[in-house]
Write a structure and sequence with these properties.
This protein is an alpha/beta fold. The chain has 2 domains: 3-179, Rossmann fold (3-Layer(aba) Sandwich); 182-324, Orthogonal Bundle (N-(1-d-carboxylethyl)-l-norvaline Dehydrogenase, domain 2), CATH 1.10.1040.10. It contains 15 helices and 8 strands. An 8-stranded mixed β-sheet has the order 3-2-1-4-5-6-7-8, with helices on both faces. Helix 4 (84-89) links the parallel strand 4 (74-77) and strand 5 (100-103). Helix 8 packs antiparallel against helix 9 (208-228), helix 8 packs parallel to helix 11 (255-264) and helix 13 crosses helix 14. The termini are far apart. 53% of the residues are buried.
Length: 331
């Protein structure tokens, strides 16, 4: 029997833990707060992040991260992107030598501009073929409810991608394999930034033309960055690219879209952060993604303007005026 540890008890970590358990894997969920771990064990649900949704009996929880990873064949990383290095470093000594590490995170590390799989390889001192990136249009609540969805398991080793594919295939969750880790990770990271911009447009009362334009041009700048980093262009037309982008930019379940919507309505960054329980990854990752783009001389105007709004005081209205007045060019 395969055993999995899921490090991170937020909505997506919990939902993916449920997927693994439904597929037949014994799962231990690590929760930072003892009271949440106890609630998951007692209630068989996550009352803080997925209230009212039952969890399988073969999914348990602990507040001890070392106990969670002990003996695990699969180690799933579902912590906020910018805390990955710290959280993984705390348990790396207890991870089994042949365990496969699965990254659910969608971001780029501040300071280093490393993708999440690169951080995992560096901290855990493992080769790229031991790390599988899981990404796609995967809104946690819908998956936890058993609504049909597809995803991508990306790894430089097709065998390990297929291993993870088999471990999370259920009647409602359909994983595909891919070897383009770079493209899959960039699609997942940049879509959060584009969702912030699309949410701002929604908050300002703009319609579907505006949002479709942002989504399409956002995909174009994601693909430009991917090309500069050696990604397969076809990846961006698939689940990890267009699929994830559409879901994140259009759904009210998307944390990044709803965060942007509140900015578009005139709320301040500080007031939103004070009220948000869960992380909107694009708020921090927009800076590191822009740094990565500049390092490779890639033009990413939407990303650049989101950084200006979120971190430099530009208003959403000024962002729209600035983007619409850029020099005319061919598509």
């Amino acid at each position: 029997m395969t055993r999995a540890a899921v490090l991170g008890s937020g909505s997506w970590g919990t939902a993916f833990g449920k997927v693994l358990a439904d597929a037949g894997t014994d799962v231990v969920l690590w929760a930072r707060r003892p009271e949440l771990a106890e609630a998951v064990r007692r209630l068989h649900e996550n009352p803080d992040y997925l209230p009212g949704i039952g969890l399988p009996m073969n999914l348990s929880a602990t507040d001890d991260p070392l106990a969670a990873v002990d003996g695990a064949d699969l180690v799933v990383l579902a912590v906020p992107s910018q805390s990955l290095r710290e959280n993984l470093g705390a348990v790396v000594s207890a991870i089994a030598p042949r365990a496969v590490l699965i990254s659910l995170m969608k971001g780029v590390e501040l300071g280093t501009t490393k993708r999440m799989s690169e951080v995992v390889c560096e901290v855990a001192d493992v080769p790229t073929d031991r790390v599988v990136v899981l990404t796609g249009p995967n809104l946690a609540k819908e998956i936890a409810l058993g609504q049909p969805a597809a995803t991508v398991a990306a790894c430089t080793d097709p065998g390990n991608a297929e291993l993870v594919q088999a471990a999370c295939m259920t009647r409602y969750f359909r994983p595909y394999t891919n070897t383009d880790v770079v493209g899959c990770e960039l699609g997942g990271a940049v879509k959060n930034v584009i969702a912030l911009a699309t949410g701002m447009a929604e908050g300002m009362g703009f319609g579907d033309n505006t949002k479709a334009s942002l989504i399409t041009r956002g995909l174009a700048e994601t693909a430009r960055l991917g090309a500069a980093l050696g990604a397969d262009p076809m990846t961006f037309s698939g689940l990890a690219g267009l699929g994830d982008l559409v879901a994140t930019c259009t759904s009210p379940l998307s944390r990044n879209r709803t965060f942007g919507e509140r900015l578009g309505r005139g709320e301040t960054l500080e007031s939103i952060l004070a009220q948000k329980q869960q992380t909107a990854e694009g708020v921090k990752s927009c800076r590191s993604i822009l740094d990565l783009a500049r390092k490779h001389d890639v033009d990413m105007p939407i990303t650049e303007h989101v950084v200006k709004v979120v971190h430099e005081g530009m208003t959403p209205a000024a962002m729209v005026r600035s983007l619409m007045s850029r020099e005319a060019k061919s598509e």
